[in-house]
Design a protein that fits this description.
Layout lengths: L1 H19 L14 E2 L45 E5 L11 E7 L2 E9 L5 H21 L11 H18 L2
Antiparallel strand pairs: 1-4, 2-3, 3-4
Length: 172
């Protein structure tokens, strides 16, 4: 009988310790944080909801926003004009991912992740690591031909879908 009581108390203690342990202590971006490449391009940004873009254009559900650039769709924007395009929100298993790009003179100068999964601490932790890497790779490659981030496969797929649509709309 004494062994059973000792076993039950030990098991109860282990369970209390296990469920009482707080695992998330890292600093994570707040849900409204917009992630962009550090020091990239023109410095335009957008709100986390994707309602407006810099330059006076407004975003619609169609996902396109410009600031008055007059470039042709086939050859990109001419030198000296800046065009901001917001890709459509790509629905993923963990939530939508939406990308906004800025093109200046036919060159990709800035990528902003307007919307991304951030419903819980784990989503924020994964995306705090994955999104800056995806943004930097995109600017370096000047295309959507980039590697996915290990451990953030679903977000990477949504990012690439939205990015490709924005690049297509911008004519890149």
């Amino acid at each position: 009988m004494r062994r059973i009581v000792l076993w039950a108390m030990t098991t109860l203690t282990v369970l209390v310790l296990l469920f009482g342990y707080h695992t998330s202590t890292s600093s994570e971006p707040s849900p409204g944080t917009v992630l962009a490449a550090p020091g990239a391009g023109s410095g335009s940004s957008a709100s986390s909801g994707g309602g407006t873009s810099s330059g006076g254009g407004t975003s619609t559900d169609g996902g396109t926003s410009t600031d008055g650039g007059t470039g042709s769709a086939q050859g990109g924007t001419p030198s000296g004009t800046t065009k901001t395009v917001t890709g459509p929100a790509a629905a993923t298993r963990w939530g939508p991912v939406q990308v906004e790009i800025t093109v200046d003179g036919g060159r990709l100068t800035n990528v902003t992740v307007v919307e991304y999964p951030n419903g819980n601490g784990r989503d924020r932790q994964i995306n705090a690591r994955a999104l800056p890497a995806l943004v930097q790779e995109t600017i370096d490659a000047q295309s959507a031909d980039i590697d996915m981030v290990s451990g953030a496969t679903v977000t990477s797929e949504g990012y690439l879908t939205s990015l490709q649509a924005a690049l297509d709309e911008a004519g890149l």
